[in-house]
Write the structure tokens for this entry.
Amino acid sequence: MDSKNNLVNTRRSFLKLTGLGGAALCMGFYLPGDTVPTLIKPSDLTAADIEMCAWILINTSGKVTIVSHRAEMGQGAYHSIPQIIAEELEVNLKDIDVVFAQGNEKKYGNQITGGSSTIRSAYKKLLKLSATAREMLIAAAALQWNVSVDDCYAEAGHVIHRPSGKKKHYGELATQASKLEAPKNPKLKKISEYKLIRQPLHRLDTPMKTNGTAIFGLDKKIPGMLYAAVERNPRLRGTVKSFDDSVAKKIPGVKQIFVVKMMVHNTIREGVAVVADSTWAAMQGKKALIVEWDDTGFEHVNSPEIFKRQEEFIKTKEGLPLKSQGDPTAIIEKSNKKLDVIYQTPYQSHSCMEPLNCIANFQGDTVEIWGPIQAPGWVQDFISTQMGIAKEKVIVNMTFLGGGFGRKAFTDYPHEAVLISKEIGAPVQVVWTREDDLKQGPYRPGISYRCEGVVKGGKIEALKFRMAGQNNDHWSGGKKDVPNDSTSEGFLEPYYASIKNLSISDVPFETPLPTMWWRSVYASTNGFAFESFMDEMAVEAGADPLDFRRAHLQDERCQKLIDKMEEVSGWKKRSKNEGYGVAITECFKSTVGHIVKVSKNASGGVKIDNVWAVIDCGWYVNPDIIRAQVEGSIVMGLGAATIHEITFKDGIVEQNNFYDYPMPRITDIPQIEVYIIDNEEDAGGVGEPGLPPFAPALTNAIFDLTGKRIRKLPFSLATV
């Protein structure tokens, strides 16, 4: 099948699914600049335009289809977007179909599922769009009945005439509604009027994910598809000197074996691809390969050397200032009683439950891609540049993602799949093993922090942070004389008002190891240093750690958050034999506070008894999804703080699979309670902000219990 026919069939399938025909109500936004709801008339557009422009489609049978512009990787976008739309559109969630949009930034704007941005970037537009459609449907009914619009209302996918009780379902009104002019300022509900939003409704994707009908990347199949596994250089930058494929070629089903070179950031990573008629055959062929690598010409790094060099840098260099006010350096240098300590956090793997995979079908001037992809626009840009194909000819189809955490926003694995498809002249699915995932990266960067401070009169007089870790921006050509703009990520904005002498600096540091975003990005590491050191200063001041933060966070929202933390944890009632720790961080416009309670266990280690988490994310959709995301963040933070890390020896990752990069087990998980602050502020993120406070709250609790200050992660709860 050529690419043109394949694309046409895809669009026909979409039209068949939605049942649009020539008459329906289709509405959307022309993003990113336009915030005015736009009526889209099928009669004026091609099939492709309908698919790519519309967010809400109502056909003549009354079926509502929502086009989800972002990926679903467990964070709940597949449900939350319909829950928003159903509220203002006045339809039942069970009557809604959801389809994933193809990558098209001209129509949908930024489609990157990252930075906890899906709801906070689009909710106001979605509310307005839904209310617009509702008012147009009500107006259409009023015209048909020749009654006043004010006497009509919408409910459960129908418009009802209040005086007579007459009603019509949306399908009966869609054609006429599509001919009306869209109101520019539809009336939106007050939060107090919501019937669906802020309710803990069951997720729409749960049945599919439990009965096996949800299509993840690994589930996707297309006609004529072959399968590939790749043996990649274990030192990440080496080249193929030679390979012996004599045994691999004898494995039934193996068809082709050749060298493939994919781009990882700004470097080339070489490997030997084995193409077969099944994933099993490809993987068996890969195991049978004998590859000789040329690993000359680049540094073979070792973990101890990385952190030793970082320590030297933060002890001897001032770095590039990102935030600076007052003169903290002068105050610290003159003080006879100052704190000066170093914190360190390790490299981490993303280790999504669904390993990396991608299907590509290269056909000359067109390429189509299917898979678990967080950033379709980035993939389109990259493939377009690398392959010399017009961006609109790079078609990216999103499936469900079995976890992403930033890793599946990268472009390396789609690029590799496209290169293999081009070589074999057929569609191919490339599947990574768990070992590939752990040993190939990219990783969350390991980082060292130097924290200096002076306390006077119970308050912070001077505070100075220096960070040495790889800057992810440098991989994409970011200026190396400019500080990493994420150096302060996690640090609460109200601190700047209360701490008059403050500086946060980036000490540039590089290794050849590929790094990238990881859940909550730099806040996941910064938060450990910032909030652990905040605790050290509270101890120096002789102050209660929570009261100390309260004194320095005068913002009203922070005060309410602290009030709630104190209330739910029983902070003021804690006994001397219990260890309590607190941490508060901010990222992606949400503030989260954790209080962790620990105690000694029978074997001499420490066990976590309770975690209380309070989140202020402003306007929100579904409290159950928020709780699940915060709980998941805590579990992920627990693993990164106490269980696993990525280490390097002679340039090779030492970890291989879950037996030496273990995940937290259910028996490791403490009691977790999540509380949501209700307010009407702008929406913040939810998927990531719950992670950064956990590690410092835990180590602060351990200090409270044992007097031992933990400044390096990971550590063992059994031997602390």
